[in-house]
Structures are given as structure tokens and as C-alpha cells.
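Lecture 7 notes: from sequence to structure.

We start with a single chain of 108 residues. Read the sequence below before looking at the structure.
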Amino acid sequence: MTELNEEYISDLRQAVVKAICEVSAQRQHAPEAGKGGTLYIGTAEVGQMLTILLTEFLEGVPGLDTPSEVRRMSDVVARKIRLGIGEIRRHREETGGTPPPSIIIRSN
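Now the structure, written as C-alpha cells:
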């Protein structure tokens, strides 16, 4: 497998987070994302949008034609999410950081 371009991944991630913040700020009529106050981000909606977006990108991947192939890809994604959550939690413990405050308004 070829190495992933980490700089490209970082740039994409930053752009997606910025877009989520900007749309969230517009919807709550905030002056600007990142300019004081509290920015409310719909975690359930963001999760649903990311799932749809991932599905749209993966749909065109060659070799995802049968349910078992899709299940294998889903397992890979699930494993990456589990490992990522573990890494984030370890980093927070090491640095004394805390996760962004979240309130469940409605669950997925």
C-alpha cells in the first residue's frame, strides 16, 4: 500500500472542520465562527454528514461490489475509529486536556 500524504490529510481535515464551524455559526446567527461566544455544533448531524460523505467516496472504490466486501471495508473504518479514539484519549490524559464540551440533545 502506498504511503498516505499526511499533509494533504491535515489540509482536508482543517477545511472540513472550518466548513462545519462556518455553517454552524451561520445557522445559529453567530457573527463569525471563532469570534467569541459559544458555537453550537450538531454532533448527530455532523456524524450523519460524515457517514454520508464517506459512503459517497467509498461507493466508487473498485472491489466493493458485494455485501462481504463492504463489510470488510466497514470493519477497517470501525477499527480506525476505535484506535483513533484511544489515541485521542491517551493524548488528553498525557496533556491534561479535556474533550470539547458536548451535550446530547438528540441521539443518532
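The chain has two domains: 1-43, 60-98. Keep this in mind for problem set 3.
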